[in-house]
């Protein structure tokens, strides 16, 4: 299978909020053919989070020569999930995921209950010929009983129902080696997020090195309060081993798409993704 690359639309969320169709056109103009959405309003919006009807979204993507390869759904509500899946089926999107909804990880029993939910969502997706995937941040690398939350999730979810979208930036900030993680879990890896960490960042690379206590509960407020926008930079301008990550990812036979992402930027959003795509291509031109 040919390995593709695209952009996570969270990178241009402000632009999309103001002008969704115009922003999609600018994304296409920048050179992207594949997008992943992030709907953080799934309690009231079945689609990509900007009130865009499925038929209009499909029409826009088709006219621009683009397609959607996934979407984060938050909150993940089983009662609303059928309508969400209807929307994404209409777009031709074959997979949805979750990213930031299921912490703090109070104890191992809580994590196991989340695993049961993930399996259920995976079943609902599979019934439609779709897939469900789990996206990490750094919190999953807290431990219970000697195992990380990430390990517990992987060991207690059905590999035919729950797949992985690795965010290599957040894995690194959780103290993990993303190259080793890709190698270890390559059979379940279907999407990969890539961003970069600046050379002169105001925080240490690993969040547990003095920014967040790995032994204490990490709430959403903790997560938000400890994110420094200056700790994100465009692809190829920072210190992460992106070339090694991509070379390793090539051996993950089920990986469909690498998605460039900026949680925060000091640039205009469109200029940011243009800088990232150019940096990405210069680093891995022999791959794509």
UniProtKB/TrEMBL annotation:
<keyword id="KW-0413">Isomerase</keyword>
<feature type="domain" description="Xylose isomerase-like TIM barrel">
    <location>
        <begin position="24"/>
        <end position="250"/>
    </location>
</feature>
<dbReference type="InterPro" id="IPR050312">
    <property type="entry name" value="IolE/XylAMocC-like"/>
</dbReference>
<dbReference type="Pfam" id="PF01261">
    <property type="entry name" value="AP_endonuc_2"/>
</dbReference>
<dbReference type="InterPro" id="IPR036237">
    <property type="entry name" value="Xyl_isomerase-like_sf"/>
</dbReference>
<protein>
    <submittedName>
        <fullName>Sugar phosphate isomerase/epimerase family protein</fullName>
    </submittedName>
</protein>
<dbReference type="GO" id="GO:0016853">
    <property type="term" value="F:isomerase activity"/>
</dbReference>
<dbReference type="InterPro" id="IPR013022">
    <property type="entry name" value="Xyl_isomerase-like_TIM-brl"/>
</dbReference>
């Amino acid at each position: 299978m040919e390995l593709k690359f695209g952009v996570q639309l969270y990178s241009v969320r402000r632009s999309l909020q103001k002008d969704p169709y115009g922003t999609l056109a600018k994304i296409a103009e920048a050179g992207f053919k594949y997008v992943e959405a992030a709907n953080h309003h799934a309690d009231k919006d079945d689609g990509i989070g900007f009130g865009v009807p499925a038929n209009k979204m499909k029409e826009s993507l088709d006219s621009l020569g683009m397609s959607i390869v996934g979407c984060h759904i938050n909150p993940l509500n089983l009662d609303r999930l059928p309508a969400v899946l209807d929307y994404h089926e209409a777009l031709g999107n074959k997979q949805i995921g979750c990213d930031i909804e299921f912490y703090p990880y109070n104890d191992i029993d809580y994590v196991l209950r989340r695993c049961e939910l993930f399996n259920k969502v995976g079943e609902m997706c599979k019934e439609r010929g779709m897939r469900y995937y789990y996206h990490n941040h750094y919190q999953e690398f807290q431990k219970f009983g000697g195992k990380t939350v990430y390990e517990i999730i992987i060991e207690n979810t059905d590999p035919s129902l729950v797949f992985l979208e690795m965010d290599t930036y957040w894995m690194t900030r959780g103290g993990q080696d993303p190259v080793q993680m890709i190698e270890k879990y390559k059979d379940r890896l279907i999407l990969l997020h890539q961003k970069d960490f600046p050379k002169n960042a105001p925080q240490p690379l690993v969040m547990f090195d003095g920014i967040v206590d790995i032994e204490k509960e990490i709430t959403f407020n903790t997560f938000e309060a400890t994110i420094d926008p200056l700790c994100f930079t465009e692809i190829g301008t920072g210190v992460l081993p992106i070339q090694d990550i991509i070379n390793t990812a090539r051996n993950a036979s089920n990986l469909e798409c690498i998605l460039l992402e900026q949680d925060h930027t000091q640039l205009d959003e469109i200029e940011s993704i243009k800088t990232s795509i150019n940096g990405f291509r210069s680093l891995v031109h022999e791959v794509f």
